[in-house]
Description:
Layout lengths: L17 E3 L5 E3 H4 L10 H9 L4 H10 L21 H21 L2 H17 L8 H10 L3 H21 L3 H26 L2 H9 L1 H11 L6 H17 L3 E6 L3 E5 L2 E5 L2 E6 L2 H19 L1
Antiparallel strand pairs: 1-2, 3-6, 4-5
Helix pairs in contact: 3-4, 3-8, 4-5, 4-8, 5-6, 6-7, 8-9, 8-12, 10-11, 11-12
Amino acid sequence: MIAFFVVFAFSCNNEQNSVDIGDDIDIPDSLLQETEPVPEISNKSMDDLVQNISSPIEMAALIKETGSNFSPELLAPTNHLDKYTTSFKKSLNLGILGADLGYLNLYGQNRFILDYLTAIKSLAEGISVGQFFDFKTLRDFASSGDDLDSLTYLSVHSFNKIDKYLRENHRTNISVLIIAGVWIEGMYFATQINDQVKLKEISDRIAEQKMVLNNIVLILGNYKGDSNFNQLLEQLKKLKEYYEPVKITYELGEPETVEQDGILTVVQNEKSVVTITEKDLENIRNQIAEIRYNAIN
């Protein structure tokens, strides 16, 4: 499910400081000058990053299990698309709206889904990856509301194709940006709901994102020469400071025997022990809200 949200694009901060090569793909002047090349991030590193991020579907499922009702006020707006004039903004918000679509799918909110699919279509076409979406079929599923599982599956398939295409074209830097957008929105869901229900399951999940944040900051650091990436990086570094007091340790549990294909395997179980205070959660919630506000406006 995580691959649903791994989409890519590229951006600059200011169109006056960029060269337009068409299809709304803008290249910063810094990349046209003779500067040190940014090293390409390996597929393994990206795969590890993606696999360790709780997908918005998983986060939304956890939220739903708490008995929380659907909250439309948690969703990012779809009427800000005119503000997203750079590929950076379009890419970041494509990830954010993708996370929102997962939340809508889980709660079966087909009355909103069509609107979000339309916005996603616009953003995808704005960064020249719209050809990977079968929007007609997606729209039909959303309009009927009869088969949300098929809607989710088709969306996942579309984003997988985008992932493959853009990695093959050495635009891994954009995947980091979109992953960051997905992660920010998932964290926004979790921190806002946790503020209302105060459940250990959610606060533990928030705490466990400490290592994911460290990896996102590390990888984004490769692109700090771009002002947009650098601004996002600084905001995430501030969030990282608020995570410093959070402690996560692991304890070995009882091993168990698992049979698969007639072969017995001993599996060593472990559990995480999380230490996070209400003040920590408050600081993290406020910083995530600020990062998310800057992203969608």
